Amino acid sequence: MSAQADDAVVRSPSGAASRFGRVILKLSGESLMGDREYGVDPNTLASIAREIVEVRAAGTEVAIVVGGGNFYRGMAAAAEGMDRATADYAGMLATLLNALALQDALERVGVQTRVQSAIGVSEIAEPYIRRRAIRHLEKDRVVIFAAGTGNPFFTTDTAAALRALEIGAEAILMAKNGVEGVYDGDPHTDPNAQLLREITHLEAIERGLRVMDTTALSLCMDNDVPLHVFELAEGNIVRVSAGERIGTIVSTRKAE
Description:
This protein is of the alpha/beta class. The protein contains 8 helices and 11 strands.
């Protein structure tokens, strides 16, 4: 990992300083829809790609875990009677669709990108190999991790936590669709829900807050991986990568 010295400041062409040496960017499938009801929005993909260019220019290595909820959601299908494992495998294929679309958007703006899949699809993506993923990052490529963990009953949140640990990421940047961060209630149904600026992993688990699933939160807590949860709005990926305090920070210990 091309880690920077603590006192080094690397800036992108726009002047944004890099806080992290390596991050996992977690994108939900829904965040790629834009104003559409399903699928991917080309303008949203292009905007994400431009921001990733700027983050990389500031010196941060970027790996991406992408969800598939804009095409398929295993839990909903299971509720309709489909076998849960079968539904989850279908969801993994949906993440591959998103990964390929995001790869295309990144390569259109000149970013070398590799898709690594946790399930075998050798014609369109590399298999997930930890050392190869790290080498790609060291060579200034963006790596997109598709198909979750490759196992049913595990979400892409868990995949993001697992991959962050495996590649030595310093943080997980969670870009949410339509919400500013973590709330103490559901902001879609509770007008009095308050945005929480900082909480611990344990508080999120005990209070049942909708940050990520409990397995993923526990993994991050046990290994001291901070989460930066924010809205996927123009410029926010760059701002969070530069260390700006927006959205919610979920950490093992609150800052003093």
